[in-house]
Each structure stands twice: as C-alpha cells, then as structure tokens.
Amino acid sequence: MTKEVKQVLVDMSVNLGGMKMQNPIAVASGTFGYGREYQDFVDITRIGAVIVKGTTLEERYGNLAPRIYETPAGMLNAIGLENPGIDVFLNDYLPSLRQDGVTLVANIAGNTVDEYALISRKIDKHPGIAGIELNISCPNVKQGGMQFGTDPELVKQVVQAVKSETKLPVIPKLSPNVTDIVSIAKAARDGGADALSMINTLMGMAVDIERKRPVLGNIFGGLSGPAIKPVALRMIYQVYKEVDLPILGGGGIVNTRDALEFILVGASAVSIGTGNFVNPAIAEEIAQGLENYVIEQGLNGINELVGAAVL
Amino acid sequence: MTKEVKQVLVDMSVNLGGMKMQNPIAVASGTFGYGREYQDFVDITRIGAVIVKGTTLEERYGNLAPRIYETPAGMLNAIGLENPGIDVFLNDYLPSLRQDGVTLVANIAGNTVDEYALISRKIDKHPGIAGIELNISCPNVKQGGMQFGTDPELVKQVVQAVKSETKLPVIPKLSPNVTDIVSIAKAARDGGADALSMINTLMGMAVDIERKRPVLGNIFGGLSGPAIKPVALRMIYQVYKEVDLPILGGGGIVNTRDALEFILVGASAVSIGTGNFVNPAIAEEIAQGLENYVIEQGLNGINELVGAAVL
Amino acid sequence: MPLSEKGLVISNQRVGRDLWEMEFLAPGIAAESKPGQFVHIRVGDDHDPLLRRPLSLYDIDQNLGRITLLYKIAGRGTNLLSKFNPDQLIDVMGPLGKGFNLLQGRRVILVGGGVGIAPLLFLARELQARQNEIAVFYGGSSSDEMCSPDRFVNLGVGIMTATMDGSTGFKGLVTDMMKTSIDPLSIDYFYTCGPEAMMAAVAEYAVQHDIAGEVSLEEYMACGVGACLGCARKLKVTDNAYVKICKDGPVFPMHDVELR
Amino acid sequence: MPLSEKGLVISNQRVGRDLWEMEFLAPGIAAESKPGQFVHIRVGDDHDPLLRRPLSLYDIDQNLGRITLLYKIAGRGTNLLSKFNPDQLIDVMGPLGKGFNLLQGRRVILVGGGVGIAPLLFLARELQARQNEIAVFYGGSSSDEMCSPDRFVNLGVGIMTATMDGSTGFKGLVTDMMKTSIDPLSIDYFYTCGPEAMMAAVAEYAVQHDIAGEVSLEEYMACGVGACLGCARKLKVTDNAYVKICKDGPVFPMHDVELR
Ligand SMILES: Cc1cc2nc3c(=O)[nH]c(=O)nc-3n(C[C@H](O)[C@H](O)[C@H](O)COP(=O)(O)OP(=O)(O)OC[C@H]3O[C@@H](n4cnc5c(N)ncnc54)[C@H](O)[C@@H]3O)c2cc1C
Ligand SMILES: Cc1cc2nc3c(=O)[nH]c(=O)nc-3n(C[C@H](O)[C@H](O)[C@H](O)COP(=O)(O)OP(=O)(O)OC[C@H]3O[C@@H](n4cnc5c(N)ncnc54)[C@H](O)[C@@H]3O)c2cc1C
Ligand SMILES: Cc1cc2nc3c(=O)[nH]c(=O)nc-3n(C[C@H](O)[C@H](O)[C@H](O)COP(=O)(O)O)c2cc1C
Ligand SMILES: Cc1cc2nc3c(=O)[nH]c(=O)nc-3n(C[C@H](O)[C@H](O)[C@H](O)COP(=O)(O)O)c2cc1C
Ligand code: FES
Ligand code: FES
After folding, report:
1. What is the ipTM of this complex?
2. Burial class (CB in 10 A: 0-12, 13-18, 19+), C186
3. Nearest residue of B to residue C48 by CA position?
4. What is the Cα–Cα distance from A161 to A175, expressed in whole angstroms?
5. Which residue, A71, A180, C147, D70, has fewest beta-carbon neighbours within 10 Å?
6. Do B40 and D228 count as a contact with CB atoms less than 8 A apart?
7. Amino acid C157: pLDDT
8. What percent of chain C has pLDDT over 70?
9. CB atoms within 10 A of CB C258
10. What is chain C's mean pLDDT, rounded?
11. Is B254 exposed, middle or buried (0-12, 13-18, 19+ CB in 10 A)?
C-alpha cells in the first residue's frame, strides 16, 4: 500500500528533446528487433521507448556469417544493417506495432545525406513514430554509416537535412570511434539535433586462431556490452559538460546500478542493447529498479539525478 | 629430450625495428614497475623485453587516489605518471637493472617536443637501454601525453625530434582514442619511427553511485585488460595493412591464445600489461606457450605467423 | 509461447569424457516444448562469459515438468554449466525456435553425430508416440565421447552405433554404416543433427534416393529469438536473404540447406 | 621472499552473517608470513572479476603450512571466494607488504573493528610468543557480524567486545570502551586495524597520551607488489609523494598517517 501511494508521487517520465517517455529506459536499436521478438519475455508497454532495428531506404541483406562473437564482457556484431527497407517497415510492420501504445523510435541509416532526408520525410508522413534516431555511427557497412559520424561537418549536414524534413525529435547517435566526441556533439547541436544518443559500438575484431583468419565475415564488428561501459560514461560526461542537449546514454548497461551511473554523468534516459540478450526482461526490471531507487532516495523524480556526479 | 632438441630449431627471437628480443613477449610500461617488483614471481631474464614505468624529465608525484578501479573484464588507471624523473632513473635505478641482462626499454613522456628530445638525449648517453618507447598516449596527465598522440603533425614532430637525439630504436606508443589510427601510424613512420607500439589505454571512467561522483581522483582513467582486446586487434590489423613498420601489439592479453591473435593480425611482438596483475608469471608462461605452439605447428620461427590472418 | 523460467537443477553429471547430462524442473517450458527446439541458458552471473548458450532439448517429461539436456564441454560456457549443483536455480529461456515436423505412421531414420544426438531422443519419443517406425544411427569418434544408447533402447527404438576408432559398434562413419544397413525404398524421411559433413552425407544419400528430411543447424547466437539478426544463414531457396537459425530454425528442410 | 602458490583449500565456512573463514595449505607462503602482511588471491578463472583480492593473514600454522583467512563478503570477488570447496586449489600470492613491528616484553593494545580484526589474531599470537602483555578490543555493529573471540581466548589473550547495537559486550564504540578500560600510563604501544574513523579515534587517544603505535590501511589494489603504483596514499611525513599501501604498508606508524 505505502509503496503504491509513493509511486504516484515520483515522476519517472522523461522528455528527451521533445520526445515523451514514460520512464527513462529505452531498448537500443538492433538489439530488440522490431519490438515483437521479445514480447513473450517482457511487457513492452512498460518500456520507455523501443528503438527499432536500423532501417535504410532500400532492403539490405546484411553481412556474411559469422555476424556475432562473444568477447570478454562484451560481444562483437557485424549484422550489416539487414532490414526490409523503410517502405516495408512503415507499411507492413508499423501498423500493428502502433496498436500496443509503445513509444517507437525509428533508427535510420543512409548512404548519402539525401537518403537520410528522404527516409525521414517518409517517416514524417506516417503517424506512430515518436522520434528519429540517426545512425551515423554504424561500423558495419561499407558506405555511409560511421564515416558520417566521424566528421563534424557531415554530422551537421545530415542533422540539418533531416530536421528540414520532419517535426519529429531528431536524435543523432554518435560514434565513439572519434578523437574528439565533444566536437561531434557540438556539430550535431549546430545542425539542430533535439537530443543526442551515445554511444554506438566501438569498432573491434576477433581472430579465429584455428583457421588463422578474422572470426567475423565482415572482419570488423561493433563492440558492445559491459566492456565498453567505461568509455561510454566518459564520453557522456564530456559531452554533458559542454553541450546543452539531453542525452540518451548507453553502452554496457546490464543492471540498475549501471543505469544510475549513466544518469549521474548526464544521461536523461538510457538505452539497453546487449543486456537484452543476457536478460530479456532487463528493460522492465531496470525501469522498476530506478523507480525504487528514486523512492528510497526521497527524490521527486529521476530528473534530479541527471548529471549529479559531474564535477 | 625430444623437446630439448626441437627447441633449438625454432627461432623465437624477434627484431623489433632494430631492437633484439629473445622472444616476442614484452611487459608493458606501468604494469611492471622497474623490473624488480615482480622478480620473486617470474624469471625476468626469460622475458623478451621489460618496458619500464613512464618516465618524465622531472619527478612526478602522480594523481590523487583512488587511482585504479576494476571494470567488467578490465580496469581503469589514472596513476598520472608518478616517477622519479629521468636522471634518478638513469643514475640510481638503471645500473643494477643492467646486470641482469634484461632487455630494458625506456618509456618516456614529455610536456613538449623539446622535453621528449631532451629525455632521449639523456637516455642515449647511458648504456643499458635497448629502445625508447614514446608515450604519446597517456590519458592521465594534464599536459602533453595523449594530446601528442591524437594529432598526426605532432606525432611526426615528436618522433623526428627524438630520432635526431638517439640511435636507439624509437617506438612511439599510439593512442587508441583517435578517429583514424592509420593516419597517426603513418605520421609516426614519416617521423622516422623504427616500430610502433599499440595500443595504449582507452579513455574511460567509472561512477561511485553511493557518493555520486567519479570513482577516480582524476575523474578519467585509462581502460586496459581483456575488455579492450577487440579494439586493439582491429587497430593493429588496420595499421599492419597500411604501414610497413613492425608492431609491438598489446591490449588485454592474458593467455597464449590472446598473444597469437595479436601476432596473426600483424604484431611482431606483444606486450602484456594488466595480465601481470592477474598472473605474475604470465610473461614467462606465454613465452613458453608460443614456443610450444610454434613447435606443434611445425614452423621454423614465430615470424612466420606475423600477419597470417590479415586478408 | 516461450518463456523465461528459473529451473531447479535436479542432477548434473558426467556421462562421457566431456559429455554431461543435466536435469532440471521447468514446468512452464517443458509444457510448451517440441522436439528440435532449444533452450537458451545463462551459465553464470558475471559478465564473462556474457551471452547465453543454446542447447537442444534432449528429453522432456511433461508430467514432471522436467527437462534433460545433453551437452559437451566445448569451452567456458559449457564448463560453467557443469558446475551447477542439484537444488541450484538456472536461468532458462525456452522453448525457442521451430522444431522438427512430426510425421505420423511413417518409416523414418534418425542420424545423430556426436552431441548432435541430443535433439533426437525427444524426437524419437514423440515419433514413437505417433506410430512411426524408427531406426536411429548414432556416430562418434570414440565410445567414451558418446552417451549410452539405453535411453533409446528403453523407448523401444532400434539404435545402431558407429565410432571412428571402432571402440564400440561399427568402425567408421555412421553414414557408411547407415547406407549398408537400410533399404532406401523402405524409408520415408530422414531427421539428422550433427557435424555438417555428416549431415551432408545423409542429404546426399537422401537426394540420390529422392527421400525428404530435415536437418538441425547451429550458428553462434546472441538473442535466440530473432531480435539481433546474428545467427544468419543463407538457404538455397532464399537467394540473397538470410534465415535466422534461432527463429526460422534450427530445423530446416534437408534439401533447402547448403551444407558445408 | 614472497611467492605464488596453489593453495589447497581445507575448509571454507560461514562464521557470521557475511563473514567467512577459509583455511588452506600453502606451506611456502606460510613459512614466510609475518603478522600484518597479506595474500593476494585470484578468485576466479574468468575475466570478470579480473583482479586479485587482497586479504590479511588471519592466522598461520607454520608447522602445518596452513593459512587461515577471515573475510567479509563485500562484493563479487569475496562472494566467489566463498564458493571454494575443500580440496580445490586456490591461486595465492604472498606474503605481501610489510607487517607489524613485533615488540618484545611490552604492554600493548590491539584494537580491531569489523573484519579489521583479521590481522590482529596472527599478530596476537606472535606478540604473545614475544612475552608482551596484550589486551584486545574488538568492535562491530552487531554480534552476528563478528567472529567468535575464542581464537584469542585460546591464545590466552584478553579480549573485550563492543557492538553498536549492544547485542554482545559493551554497547557503543569500541574506542569508547577501550578508553574507559585502560590506564594510558600502563600502555606502551597500539596496533589497530578497522574503519578509519575507528583508527582515527585510537590515534587521537594515543597522541593525547603520547603513545606510539601502528595502523593497517586499505586501498584498492591491482598488482599488490608495488609495480602499478595504484594503491597510493599520502602520509603526513612524505609531503607530496605517495606511499604504496601494498609495498610500503599496509602497516604504517600511527602518527604518520592522516586518517580520514
Ligand atoms: C540450436 C542449438 C542447439 C544446440 N544444442 C546443443 C546440445 O544439445 N548439446 C551441446 O553440447 N551443444 C549444443 N549446441 C552447441 C552449444 O551451444 C555450444 O557448444 C556452446 O554454446 C559452446 O559454449 P562454450 O562457452 O562452452 O564454448 P565457447 O568457448 O564459447 O566456444 C567453443 C565453441 O563453441 C562454439 N559456440 C560458442 N557459442 C556458441 C553459440 N552460442 N552457438 C553456437 N556455437 C557456439 C564456438 O564457435 C566455438 O567453436 C547447440 C547450438 C545451437 C545453436
Ligand atoms: C591489505 C588489505 C588487507 C585486507 N584484508 C582483508 C581481510 O582480512 N578480510 C576482509 O574481509 N577484507 C580485507 N580487505 C578488503 C578486501 O580486499 C575487499 O573487501 C575485497 O577486495 C572486496 O572485493 P569484492 O570483489 O568482494 O568487492 P567489490 O565488489 O570489488 O567491492 C566491494 C567494496 O570493496 C572495495 N574493494 C574492492 N576491491 C578492493 C581491493 N582490491 N582493495 C581494497 N578494497 C577493495 C571496493 O571499493 C568496494 O567498496 C583487505 C584489503 C587490503 C587492501
Ligand atoms: C546485434 C546488434 C545490432 C545492432 N544494430 C544497430 C543498428 O541497427 N543501429 C544502431 O544505431 N545501433 C545498432 N547497434 C548498437 C546498439 O544499439 C547499441 O548502441 C550498442 O550495442 C551499445 O549498447 P549496449 O552495450 O547496451 O549493447 C547494434 C548492436 C548490437 C549488439
Ligand atoms: C596501472 C597502469 C599503468 C600504466 N602506465 C603506463 C605508462 O606509464 N606508460 C605507458 O606508455 N603506458 C602505461 N600503461 C598502459 C600499458 O602499458 C598498456 O599499454 C595498456 O595497459 C594496455 O595493455 P593491457 O591491456 O595488457 O594492460 C599503464 C597501464 C596500467 C594498467
Ligand atoms: S540469435 Fe539473435 S537472431 Fe538468432
Ligand atoms: S597495488 Fe600495485 S602498487 Fe600497490
């Protein structure tokens, strides 16, 4: 009873650059399919936002297998943006997803600035999407992807182009594979970004000793999971200090304590990727864990914690 | 008996840009003190090269505690280059170390290009040092350190300046905290580097949830250990393909299989850092493990494996 | 519907050199399970190893809610699995994937190689219940790496064993033994699981004699539910697109698959 | 000389709420050990947790080559430690660091707080052998978080206990109990290990009465041998330079240390 009453008093909702989330937990693009795959294991209506698999203008088949590999406290993936293309997503997948009342975020990738703009225009015309995450940081495709995310000028251009096509919150997802994350974040801001998503995967690889060749079909892949958490926290800390935009933080979150670390260094909301594979109910559990924490600490809402550890 | 005979036939020695090593195993700077600290646990005369703690022109006291913290499959450190200064090292520490016949490599860091040059001149005058590793990648000091390692022009200048002061092999140690590791490696080559050491630590941080502040006294620290192995392998692979210099590879090596992965993507020799903390006899064990592997595979020497997995 | 359950370990013991058998109670999963499906298991609480490990359903007792696994220690994950003690809880997702097509009243051949025998026991049980005539061929490198055929014998199913070293049964390839032991004209269907080279030999024979069948494939997995697109594989029939072993499989029509 | 040894676990059991005692055979390390030194233990084979964990020598039987540890489950590392079974091997480096100064024929006070009691048992044994008069004060939050004083009693050493909740012994701070129980004029030396606030209270009292002593400090450690410079701490006497807890300590002269 007491708990019931208290729960009403704490405010777990987040406004991420204009995008409303019922709680600060998002599931990260590429780790949760299109929202349906995990529905037997977790109540998806209790997740703050579901960011769907990266979508391109045309259908993509993705990379050769092996596409994934486990590394110490992490994993490599080189899916290669396998997806049915934006039209199939919007026309065939979206309608049924909308009915669940889940906050759906699109994650898009283009080969050119124009493609990003074109995909965004298509999304803007369809109701049911709460925001657009710009994947300018995918290390697993030949064209586009990460190269956009490592050049401040291109980052600005992409964001601008997308902003001119949509009124939806635009959230560029930054690559950690850069010398100066702050300059990239500033470029995104200058382009008109509503929030920042960080970080995408670190570029890595693994070697098959028996066969004496790279493990992954694509040679390189993106490193995710707990291994990268220290790097993600550092970059968010740096950007929070210098750039006045809300941050969707993630990289290696597997429990409530991890999520708190991200919030304390400046993330307004957090995304869970690899953690879903370890525990499919993780998003719901961490949402609850954060709420309990806010109550225990006697706070009014989660927002009071954002950036509290930044000196 | 048979083994004895075979051992004579395989050649485990390595010539790393003019620096002779009896086997491809080095212990990494900052993780093995000045060679003495671990002598009760490992036969240091069986290690290919001992790279001593980073040394600066003047004495440094280092950073405030806490200086280290464990992370998933890794650790953060922010020692802050605590060291007695180059003169004390050369005059007081070096003489006794020389007597053991260990291949000693200096690791130096300066605030300016001139300081790098000056320290190198001092080293060059003292016998007993087999090579100079240039730490242009330390993320834990305010001045100098990493900023040198992220700007190709500065990398070239530092290497050139050092090369003009010494005939010893000069081995710049590259920072992984860059967008384009190949351009940094090329700059080092253009400056006259004899070999490349890679990678130093990734910059990261951790948060103390109870105290709501960064764990480390220095806020940021360098991430090392198995967690970073995929990133290290990827960068070495990229550089091996593009730059014709021998590579001293490391980052997360804790067993023979790890060392083989590095050699297969192009490392001529490998360095072990954090692994020493886990198993103080690791360098000797991996040296033996590699030798066994070379024998089992029927190879003549370790060199035949270098880069064998690079497509 | 698959679910996530804390299984209660009943037993976990070595049954061969690197071969172990684990029994646990997970009534929810057991009730939903079909032969050829798999469970996705968390082998430790720490972050290394991080990912779950997929294992086939070796046997199910739906009345007791009991699941039996047969697993080979292949690396750190399966090694950790072997450390579980009775009365410990184990974190299991399942049943996942699509299982075997269960025929009715036919003459079928099951060919298992190594630990690939695992899904074939539960399959044999269910096929037996559907009045099929079943013959099992079980191959391995050596007897000490194989489980006992008793569980098949107890079902009343014929099983013949082949080993490369001749330590038990026929000496040589299980597929060679099979070819000399069966009359292709009397066979309706093949089910096979094991090394791809073995399955390829079965498939080749099946093509020659125009017999249909199914194979169970493996790929490195992360999610196990089709969310990560990691366990991709091209089929002959899908042109450039990839199927997902975890969701579209692990069982596929034998003649759709390009075995390597 | 310190060494690395595979200890053979003899016993590992709970002796309080989160408090465990482990005995293992490591004759090489035992032979070299002095009170106040520590061992550095690998708690698992995997990479997470990665680093060793430092634990004080609680007791040593040099004849048997037996080492006893007293540890509190503080997190994942100590939790893994509690999973070791008798007959398992455990990877131990030691003895590391500088131990306590062993006086001869003096009147000494030992003050331990919580699991900080650990190094004081072996110390008491050695001080006893050196004809000192010893009184031990042992404080904790509650009796169920403390080990039994029997091991001290068996040595023939007087021990008095204080708990914050009064569940056993004096109710309140162990240092308050100590102050009312001893005559400072009759004391030659203090040895203390425990929370810094407790040690600070001991040090303050010692300063007031001009008595010398030693404290045992803790810091997060990686190498344990002075190689990584991680476990740094400033002493009053060292100006800007840092000592290394693992090598220069963990025991330091009480009045050199700025306790926090
Ligand atoms: C659908 C399916 C059903 C399976 N059923 C069984 C079974 O009933 N009994 C059994 O013993 N084994 C089974 N396997 C294989 C089993 O999953 C792997 O042996 C196990 O995951 C290895 O984990 P490890 O940590 O012990 O080895 P690792 O050290 O991780 O690797 C050892 C070897 O196993 C392979 N491997 C590792 N992880 C996976 C993975 N997630 N999927 C596939 N291969 C992997 C690696 O490529 C490597 O060659 C099945 C695999 C799949 C995909
Ligand atoms: C010289 C020395 C002697 C010690 N003797 C004992 C003893 O006899 N009995 C005992 O119970 N404990 C002792 N400790 C403390 C013990 O080392 C830590 O409790 C243990 O390492 C915690 O590991 P964990 O993985 O269980 O906890 P973690 O989850 O890693 O952390 C739990 C807490 O322990 C602290 N901690 C973690 N690792 C270390 C480390 N390497 N050094 C210091 N603190 C750490 C963390 O900061 C955190 O507050 C000693 C510490 C030192 C430095
Ligand atoms: C299998 C897999 C597929 C991914 N696909 C995408 C994608 O399509 N678009 C994208 O922006 N990020 C993608 N990512 C990155 C994740 O969204 C997330 O940013 C990253 O994994 C770091 O978070 P984590 O450590 O919690 O997994 C993918 C990650 C994984 C593991
Ligand atoms: C405690 C610690 C101190 C270090 N100090 C130095 C240093 O002084 N100079 C340097 O070039 N690298 C230093 N490094 C980096 C290591 O030499 C090595 O490059 C890095 O840790 C990656 O390798 P590893 O994963 O095997 O540890 C230090 C690393 C650690 C963990
Ligand atoms: S394992 Fe994720 S799609 Fe199959
Ligand atoms: S722990 Fe490495 S110097 Fe003390």
Report:
1. 0.95
2. exposed
3. B73
4. 19
5. A180
6. no
7. 92
8. 100
9. 11
10. 94
11. buried
